């Protein structure tokens, strides 16, 4: 645990030191769980967004984009259920005065049981080698069976209690499991209460006439209320999807773990409209498709797992999370939900307007069912950033800090370094930059010795360093250094574009899917 905490502290520290993420309004001591993306962070975030958009919208003939407003008519949130049901179970520790989500405390306890089971499996894998049959071991080993059964029992009971709004039993479960405050170790808990997560605001010129509004807690509803507008104007045929990225706002009870859980965050969502009765087929398709997209970035298959929901949201008939192994353990990265026809029917009811599709093949009108994919852009940023940050020991015994970002996402694709600040080398370097910047985000760096500049670019995640030296003047060649291997090649200036393109193009990365 201590090691994980140290890794996470290094992630937070590195993000600030190298211009990726700053605490918001830090000159005023900051604002809890609100962050600013700095000069390198904004580029990385933009590249993740574009990588998602390319795969989701541009590469699918039947998915189009949308950018709905953050402010929506307040009845939207009544229809969606957010006014009445968008709550988290809150519990306070009387001794530490710390506030927690009761369900997260229970889920963390259950995850410890799962980790114990995984340790038993890994020990057996080492012991039995190639002869190891994991499925048989999981089904027959007494300890693993006990851990798994206990984990399942806990999560199923919590799901039932939350589904029935039985908050007393949620507290009883916490007490029975002897869950203590992570900070103080105290088990002196308050009752569990429901806490609505929406931010309220006002629309109007005066307090007397102002309308009460909400900052949207999710981007999905902007898609649902525009379903028919997009379908008709785009002549879309079911099945089809509407995708968008944008800010959402939640007054989180416990906003910790850096940018993992913030009060202002960005989502990348797609709502896929399908025929009633066909939703599970599309649900299974999108589960696998979304996992393939994540795996295309090369962060390691072992860092992902599916988690099927025991407790379903009021709108869903199936739901699963793609969980990622963050420095603080496996947590939700993306959700795939079968939302049935709840949203469109609710907006029909509250608006008095039909939101139906005429299917020419069936010759009938119906309200489509919806399969949703929703990934947090900030969580995606954290997953990529934290996994890419490495401390390496080199052959000579020295160490380097390197941010091994997927090259397609790197904020700067190449840094051009003149060996010295004279003899015409800076001028050649600037000429190279002037040519490359039409296609890539590139940087110029002339301060310090070349070795220090290499280390600085390693820490920034720059895939290539291009060094201009005196030989360049003679034969128009440069040294190109590869971040991950530190291998150096002598290449022609004219070949730089194709070399970089081969490593950073979305086409080459998405072809891995």
Automatic annotation (TrEMBL):
Described function: Catalyzes the attachment of glycine to tRNA(Gly).
Record GO terms (molecular function): ligase activity
Entries under HAMAP family matching the protein: Gly_tRNA_synth_B
Key word Hydrolase present: no
Record localization: Cytoplasm
Alphabetical keyword list: Aminoacyl-tRNA synthetase, ATP-binding, Cytoplasm, Ligase, Nucleotide-binding, Protein biosynthesis
NCBIfam families, sorted: glyS_dimeric, PRK04173.1
EC number: 6.1.1.14
Domain Aminoacyl-transfer RNA synthetases class-II family profile: 177-418
Highest taxon listed in the record's lineage: Bacteria
UniProt binding sites for ATP: 250-252, 260-265, 332-333, 376-379
Binding-site residues for substrate, renumbered to this chain: 101, 218, 265-269, 372-376
Subunit comment: Homodimer.
Signal peptide start-end: none
Catalytic activity: tRNA(Gly) + glycine + ATP = glycyl-tRNA(Gly) + AMP + diphosphate
Primary subcellular site in the record, as a coarse category: cytoplasm
Family per similarity comment: Belongs to the class-II aminoacyl-tRNA synthetase family.
Name assigned to this protein: Glycine--tRNA ligase
């Amino acid at each position: 645990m201590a090691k994980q905490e140290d890794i996470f502290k290094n992630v937070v520290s590195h993000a600030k030191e190298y211009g990726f993420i700053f605490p918001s309004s830090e000159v005023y001591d900051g604002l809890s769980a609100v962050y600013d993306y700095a000069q390198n962070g904004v580029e990385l975030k933009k590249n993740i967004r574009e990588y998602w958009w390319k795969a989701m919208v541009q590469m699918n003939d039947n998915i189009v984009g949308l950018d709905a407003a953050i402010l929506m008519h307040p009845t939207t949130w009544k229809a969606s259920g957010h006014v009445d049901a968008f709550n988290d179970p809150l519990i306070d520790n009387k001794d530490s005065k710390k506030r927690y989500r009761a369900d997260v405390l229970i889920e963390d306890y259950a995850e410890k049981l799962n980790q114990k089971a995984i340790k038993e499996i890994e020990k057996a894998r080492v012991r039995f080698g190639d002869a190891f049959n994991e499925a048989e071991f999981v089904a027959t080993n007494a300890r693993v069976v006990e851990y798994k059964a206990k984990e399942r029992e806990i999560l199923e009971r919590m799901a039932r209690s939350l589904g029935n709004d039985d908050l007393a039993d949620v507290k009883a479960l916490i007490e029975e499991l002897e869950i203590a405050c992570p900070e103080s170790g105290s088990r002196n808990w308050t009752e569990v209460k429901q806490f609505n997560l929406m931010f309220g605001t006002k629309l109007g010129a005066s307090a007397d006439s102002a309308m009460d509004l909400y900052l949207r807690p999710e981007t999905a509803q902007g898609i649902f209320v525009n379903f028919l507008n997009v379908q008709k104007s785009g002549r879309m045929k079911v099945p089809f999807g509407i995708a968008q990225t944008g800010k959402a706002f939640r007054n989180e009870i416990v906003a910790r773990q850096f940018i993992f859980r913030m009060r202002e965050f960005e989502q990348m969502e797609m709502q896929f409209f399908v025929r009633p009765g066909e939703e599970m087929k599309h649900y299974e398709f999108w589960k696998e498709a979304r996992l393939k997209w994540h795996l295309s970035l090369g962060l390691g298959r072992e860092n992902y797992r599916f988690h099927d929901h025991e407790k379903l949201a009021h709108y869903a008939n199936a739901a699963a999370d793609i969980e990622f192994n963050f420095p603080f353990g496996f947590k939700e990265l993306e959700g795939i939900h079968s939302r049935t026809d709840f949203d469109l029917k609710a907006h029909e009811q509250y608006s008095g307007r039909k939101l139906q599709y005429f299917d020419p093949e069936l010759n009938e009108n119906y309200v489509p069912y919806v399969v949703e994919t929703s990934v947090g852009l900030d969580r995606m940023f954290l997953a990529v950033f934290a996994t890419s940050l490495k401390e390496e020991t080199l052959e000579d015994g020295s160490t380097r800090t390197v941010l091994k970002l997927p090259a397609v996402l790197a904020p700067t694709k190449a840094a051009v370094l003149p060996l010295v600040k004279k003899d015409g080398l800076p001028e050649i370097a600037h000429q190279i930059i002037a040519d490359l910047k039409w296609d890539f985000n590139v940087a110029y760096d002339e301060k310090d010795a070349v070795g220090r500049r290499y280390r600085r670019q390693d820490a920034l995640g720059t895939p290539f360093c291009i060094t201009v030296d005196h030989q360049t003047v003679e034969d128009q060649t440069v040294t190109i250094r590869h971040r991950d291997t530190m291998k150096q090649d002598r290449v022609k200036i004219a070949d730089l574009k194709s070399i970089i393109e081969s490593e950073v193009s979305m086409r080459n990365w998405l072809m891995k899917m």
